[in-house]
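Chapter review. Work through the record for U2 small nuclear RNA auxiliary factor 1 before attempting the end-of-chapter questions.
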Amino acid sequence: MLLFSKLDHLMESCTFHLFCIWVHECELMYLASCAFQDCLASYFSSFRVNCSFYFKIGACRHGDRCSRLHNKPTFSQTIALLNIYRNPQNTAQSADGLRCAVSDVEMQEHYDEFFEEVFTEMEEKYGEVEEMNVCDNLGDHLVGNVYVKFRREEDAEKAVMDLNNRWFNGQPIHAELSPVTDFREACCRQYEMGECTRGGFCNFMHLKPISRELRRELYGRRRKRGGGHHSRSRSRERRSRSRDRGRGGGGGGGGRDRERRRSRDRERSGRF
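Structure tokens for U2 small nuclear RNA auxiliary factor 1:
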């Protein structure tokens, strides 16, 4: 009887000891599980999906505050020159602070000269340009952005490195590689049809068109490959003469006045 009592006591002791071991192992497993869950939570909280707006348009209205990832390319054919074009209709003011009216004709002349200067500078210094587009949006992330798509990625990389050390219109140039390669995806289709209800604050590109004559000159130039700065000045003179003829002449004085006015504008702008 005493033997059975001792055996029962021994079994109870062993059972209690095993139970303690089991409880300790459970505690360790629980702590390990908590640590693993914390690790997972930390990992997934740092994981962000790509921002579709930045991927399509190369710009996002949230900027660095965006909850999604702006995955900047390390190589691309396209570069973005941020906020480089100043629309005279948005910025023109008189000395007393009142807004000055800028006619559509003057605005188109100003824009054509800007476009030709930038386009020619890109081709002469960095390489063949396949396409160049200028945003006419008003949102801070798109206003005045110029997108230049080069034929070769190496030319785009060279342009970004050099342009970030240059100035235009009295301001330092901020250039970066852009993920945009298909501008059809980045453009606002409603704007192209004249139906965009969001106006200048639309988050898709509203591309400002150049005159047909300038388009023929710039994109037709690669067939002739004439060159350089002389072709730039000659094309300006030809467009100036054609505009004067289109307005019915009005004598040589009017044309000279316009040329002097454009020269003063270029001097004030600083340009490249």
